[in-house]
Specification:
Length: 251
């Protein structure tokens, strides 16, 4: 990406100007079924097609999640990261400073995976205090749960990825883990290790949250202009997920 060139073009351009000669670079992670190992998949298709309608090509590269978010926030060669859950703690237009959230373009049903014969149950977050909850390092899960883990009110068991998290709960190193239901369904069909333990696990009927999915653009003038183009040309919405109400009107 040529950020300086792109930014100057944005400043002098009219709303109809095309950036067909420019390529925006975005980071992501291998997170099937949303993003496949090749970097393609439903989320990438949406991001590519949205920018294509603005005349912009997109270069996508996979990284481990923590590196993906770091590069998108700190390295000017990358304009943003996806798919991201909303969190005010990282929203540069709320209480954070890491990135600028796009309009939602998909959704992610997140809940608890437990052993099939487990007594795990919950109605309110206070019910979770008595359990060890497995989470993936660096993931946003749900605001109240994340805060309670950070404060030590809930014991969190860290994993490096979703597969490791699943294997931990199968080995009863956690009472339950937080995971997207579609990710679990994909992994139990495609990952031999997960398939081996899948019949001993169950997804709890009560969702923790139905997240919307976003592109989180770097907190800069170039990132703001890229977000404006993405939002303007986005035709797929994730409004059925839970998100910050103010994000629906971001430019």
């Amino acid at each position: 990406m040529r950020c300086a060139l792109a930014l100057s073009a944005f400043i002098i351009a009219t709303s109809s100007l095309s950036f067909a000669s420019d390529t925006l670079r975005l980071t992501t992670l291998h997170w099937p079924p949303y993003v496949e190992e090749s970097g393609e998949g439903p989320n990438t298709n949406t991001v590519r097609s949205t920018f294509a309608r603005a005349g912009i090509k997109v270069d996508v590269q996979l990284f481990p999640w923590n590196r993906a978010i770091m590069l998108a926030a700190d390295d000017p060669n990358w304009i943003g990261v996806y798919p991201e859950y909303y969190s005010a703690d990282i929203d540069a237009e709320a209480s954070g400073d890491r990135c600028l959230f796009s309009r939602p373009f998909g959704n992610s049903p997140v809940g608890f995976l437990t052993p099939s014969n487990s007594s795990f149950d919950w109605d309110t977050h206070d019910d979770l205090r008595s359990y060890v909850i497995g989470v993936v390092r660096g993931y946003v899960n749900e605001a109240k749960l994340d805060q309670m883990i950070a404060d030590g009110d809930i014991v969190g068991e860290l994993a490096e990825n979703d597969t490791q998290n699943i294997l931990k709960v199968a080995a009863r190193r956690a009472d339950a883990i937080v995971i997207d239901k579609n990710v679990f369904d994909y992994l139990k069909a495609e990952d031999a290790g997960v398939a081996f333990v899948a019949d001993s696990l169950q997804f709890h009927e009560k969702l923790l949250i139905n997240h919307s999915l976003y592109v989180c653009f770097e907190n800069s003038s170039a990132g703001r202009e890229a977000r404006k183009l993405f939002n303007r040309h986005l035709t797929t919405s994730g409004d059925e997920g839970q998100s910050d109400p103010g994000l629906q009107n971001t430019q």
